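Justification of resources, computational component.

The compute hours requested in this renewal are based largely on the per-chain cost of generating structure records like the one below. Each record pairs the submitted sequence with a full structure-token output. That output is archived, and it is also reused by downstream analysis tasks.
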Amino acid sequence: MIKKWKILESKEIYSSHFITLKEEKLERPDGKIVTPYYAIERPDVVYVIALTKNIEIVLVYQYKNGIKDLVLELPAGFVDKGESPKEAAKRELLEETGYSGKGFTKIGGFNSGAGLSRNTNYFYVVKDVEKTSEQNLDENEEIDVKVFPFNKILFNIKNWNSILPEVQSQLGILLAEKLI
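The structure output for this chain reads:
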């Protein structure tokens, strides 16, 4: 029977507001020591599938340094300490897009890198969103808001022709299909 490994030592190598890197020494159930093993801790993240009354999806267009390009994706962001994922979803949608709505429905919570990362990505759907304010962006955010027919974006994902390069955005839209 497979069993969990034990963490014998865990040393923080680097830490910032966004990420903590740990070097660990692990013991397998058979007694073998695995070292060094690295783990990434970061805050949980929310992704918001925001739909207008006309079943259009609200997306954000911004620069992402990881792939060094401008990308189209779901509004998303970190869950702040003391904040629930649902509260974070409402806040991030409003801050990044100026849109708000009622009835945020959680449709999933997933880990995107179980071998390395220790955070959860939460997905929320909110319908009948409307633009209610201006954006309230963080110091280093530059975001254009784009609105597309939901069915067109969904069709393109299903046919391997997505304009959304990020897997979390694609997954969120696929999960939301049942609620539309």
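Strands lie at 6-15, 20-27, 33-41, 45-51, 56-64, 69-73, 76-78, 99-110, 121-131, 144-149. The chain is about 20% helix and 45% strand.
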